[in-house]
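dude i think i finally got it to work??
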Amino acid sequence: MIRKLWSDEAGFVVSSELVLIATVLVIGLLAGLATLRDQVVQELGDVAAAISDVNQSYSFSAITAHTSSTAGTVFDDTTDLCDANGEPTDAEPNCIDVVEPATAGE
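look at this
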C-alpha cells in the first residue's frame, strides 16, 4: 500500500503546473503594477509641471471714463521652489522622485 501511494501521481502534474503558472502570473503582475505606478506618477508630475509653466502674470492699466474709473492691477508669478525652464520632455518632473534609494539598515 505504501509503494502504491508513493508511485501514485494522479493530479500531481496539474497542481504543480497551476502553482508554477500562478507564481509566474503574480510576479508579472507585480512588475507590471510597479511600472504602472511609476508611469502614473510621471504623468501626474508632467501635468503639474505644465500647469506650473503657464504664465500667470497679467496687468492692465487704469481706465477712466466719463463718470467712473478703475485702478490698474499687476500680478507677477514668481518662480516656485522646483520650477525650471527648458526641462527636457523625457525627464522626470522636478521635485518628484519615483525611486528612492534605500537608507542604511533597510
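The first strand starts at residue 58 and ends at 60.
im so relieved honestly
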